[in-house]
Write a structure and sequence with these properties.
mainly alpha, Ferritin, 5 helices, elongated, binds fe (iii) ion, binds zinc ion
Length: 199
């Protein structure tokens, strides 16, 4: 029977998980960038792609410093998050709604990574792997900055522009309904819309 696993084993396993997650993100980020309409959002994704390549190299340095083989172990968590992002890319949203959704998808990935690297840094410190902790902390800082960049793009206009399109669309539908008041309403959500009951 194998020996009981220790925190060091868990630490190495999580490093492998993070290594695989970063590699999956290297494939996913260009798709997010391609799907984005806003030039700033495209740039945020492509900038973070370049950072992510550096994060892979940084993890290789961490493995080397610990005398561990560089190895990934499939990260199911980021796979699920990337799948949700892919589903958004496939959806037929208006351009601003799509950008808002791409930001939300990107932030799910960043938050997952912030959680992962937060634990890795803490464990590295507890285990006395100071050099690894320093390196992992650099990546943690980049993940937090990427998340904040996405927040600033969402709050700096993309969400409001998407909401303006959503409200305009709703008003359009409401005036269509006024024109054909007899027709059943598809979206009787606005107070100004005719009071058509669903049944
Ligand atoms: Fe990353
Ligand atoms: Zn994982
Ligand atoms: Fe990231």
């Amino acid at each position: 029977m194998a020996d009981t696993q220790t925190l060091r084993d868990a630490f190495i396993e999580e490093l492998k998980d993070a290594y695989d997650a970063e590699k999956q993100l290297i494939k996913a980020l260009p798709k997010l960038a391609k799907a984005a309409s806003s030039a700033d959002l495209k740039k945020a994704f492509t900038n973070h792609l370049e950072e992510t390549k550096g994060q892979v190299e940084r993890l290789e340095e961490v493995f080397a410093g610990l005398d561990e083989k560089v190895q990934g172990k499939h990260c199911d968590g980021i796979e699920g998050i990337i799948e949700e992002g892919d589903a958004i890319i496939e959806e037929d949203f208006d351009t601003m709604a799509k950008d808002a959704c791409l930001i939300a998808a990107g932030q799910r990935a960043e938050h997952y990574e912030i959680a992962a690297y937060g634990s890795l840094v803490a464990w590295a410190r507890s285990l006395g792997h100071d050099e690894a902790a320093e390196l992992l902390e650099l990546t943690l800082t980049e993940e937090k900055a990427a998340d904040e960049k996405l927040t600033s793009l969402a709050e700096g206009g993309i969400n409001d522009e998407a909401a303006t399109l959503a409200n305009a669309e709703e008003e359009d539908e409401a005036s269509d309904e006024d024109a054909v008041a007899a027709a059943p309403s598809r979206t009787a959500t606005k107070k100004s819309a005719p009071a058509t009951k669903r049944r």
